[in-house]
Design goal:
By secondary structure, the protein is of the alpha+beta class. About 35% of the residues lie in helices and about 25% in strands. The two termini are about 25 Å apart.
Amino acid sequence: MIGSMTAAAKASSASDLPLGAKAQAGATKAYEFNPLSDPRWEIFTEKHPQASVFHSTSWLRALQTAYGYEPLGITSCAPGAALDNGLIFCRIKSRLTGWRFVSLPFSDHCEALVHNARELDDLLSHMTQYVDSGPWRYVEIRPISNQPGSQSALCAQTYWLHRLDLGRSKQELFCRLQRDSIQRKIRRAERENLRYEEGRSEALLEKFYDLLVLTRRRQYLPPQPLSWFRALASTFGDKLKIRVASKDNLPVASILTMTHKNTLVYKYGCSDARLHRLGGVAFLLWKSIEEAKDLGLEHFDMGRSDSDNLGLVSFKERWGAVRTRLCYWRYPHGPVRDSESWKRDFLRRVVPMTPNFVLKSVGKLLYGHIG
């Protein structure tokens, strides 16, 4: 059971345990490893059908570079043996929000790469001992389909995850788009002769970031630090693209996408609300889909949405994307205290009157604490 540890397990001598493992009666032994230095992790995730961009060493390196998070892998496979299962976490050590293990910070989802619920419970039991015996506040996982079997983990937050099947032709995909809100915006953008740019240059990053600051202000949030996007561009290389649509050299909208195996991932989007009528976001998303088809990709991951954000949920489904319920599981039970609380109680009052340079500074200071 998650969070349980027998007296026999507690009494086990450290000298009798494999390195990085903690024994538990009736449970599979768990071994810790560093997914950035252990080559088995990349080999395993490249072959695993449920491994996503968020399992990749590129994502982990970006988290470490931008925020200093230390990665940790857990498996039942002994050191030196090929990996057959695994969970990955980042250690978040914050004086502001406390210490916790999250799988993974700033990821929309991170599937538990296990065979069944019992295997997941065994690996999580290893992690929950950190909470039971030390300063760690909680352990959190963000699986899509592999859910814990134990009752000790709480579904702390729920979202919708949207994914678009790219198995149809471009023409069929376009015809499935909602005519008034999506097709019409794409056609409007084409009539407006919006200029399209893509890449990961510093100039494109600056255009993207300026629009991101505007968008986060509309959402009553500080922007993520620029160093985070620089880290992503560095670690992903040509698998990451910043796409910008402009009208008369004025940026209208921008999105950031990443390619992983057979999937194109839409991770960040931003725009100038004064120019929404030009259809910039729809134009960029359709460009991305066309490119994904040309590359032979099979899926378009449109990311998570808050379950109560009906506008965003509806927007994604107008593209033909299918929703899946996404649950973030947390041990131990207790009230969820995270970025949502200060978003509701504080930022809506403060952000509208805060200059951009201050918002950027706040984002730079805070995001490492809220992963």
